[in-house]
Design goal:
Elements lengths: L1 H19 L6 E6 L2 E3 L2 E6 L7 E7 L5 E4 L10 E7 L4 E6 L11 E4 L4 E6 L5 E4 L7 E12 L3 H6 L4 E4 L3 E7 L1
Parallel strand pairs: 3-13
Antiparallel strand pairs: 1-4, 2-3, 4-9, 5-8, 6-7, 6-11, 7-10, 11-12, 11-13
Length: about 180
């Protein structure tokens, strides 16, 4: 019985360590504001016509990586933002759920060292959780998140799954 217990502990230690060591993400993520100055920048939120800013997904691996295109239901909500105000209140901004009348799992292959650049406009199609109080202008800390959950389609189309985050940026948020 003691040999079985020791063997069980050894197997648990070996396989627990292997399962616990996640491979590093093959991507880095960055945010490019609408306007930039010094060490800050501006992003805007508007119901109708916000200024674009950009999320840049860079393949830092040595192999091509497949991602979903944003127009389909698989890629539509892959980008979100974690936002904190100066008083420490935290929010998550994500695309509003959408009913797709035409839908096809299309992908984009990001080659090693290359980028997929996403134009973002925080308009009526984005929601905040919890609800975000409108103010003309305020300092924020913003972090972009790119996340793809595993599904049958990710396996069929060999799409990367996982989560990658940008570092935190200190921006000014303008709302109108």
């Amino acid at each position: 019985m003691p040999k079985l217990a020791v063997l069980s502990l050894v197997l648990l230690a070996v396989f627990g360590t292997l399962w616990g060591d996640a491979a590093p993400a093959p991507f880095s993520l960055a945010v490019v504001p609408s306007r930039s100055f010094g060490d800050g920048g501006i992003v805007s939120m508007s119901h109708d016509r916000p200024q674009d800013f950009y999320v840049v997904l860079t393949n830092v691996s040595g192999e091509s990586q497949v991602v979903w295109e944003l127009w389909n239901s698989w890629g539509y909500q892959t980008i979100s933002f974690e936002l904190a105000t100066a008083n420490g209140k935290k929010f998550v901004l994500s695309k509003r759920p959408e009913a797709f009348t035409r839908n096809n799992p299309t992908t984009f292959a990001v080659q090693p060292g290359e980028h997929q650049v996403y134009a973002v406009h925080l308009d009526k199609w984005w929601v905040s959780n919890p609800a975000f109080t409108k103010a003309d202008e305020m300092p924020i800390t913003l972090k972009a998140v790119y996340q793809v959950p595993p599904t049958r389609e990710t396996g069929e189309h060999k799409v990367w799954t996982g989560r990658v985050e940008s570092h935190s940026y200190h921006f000014t948020l303008r709302q109108w």
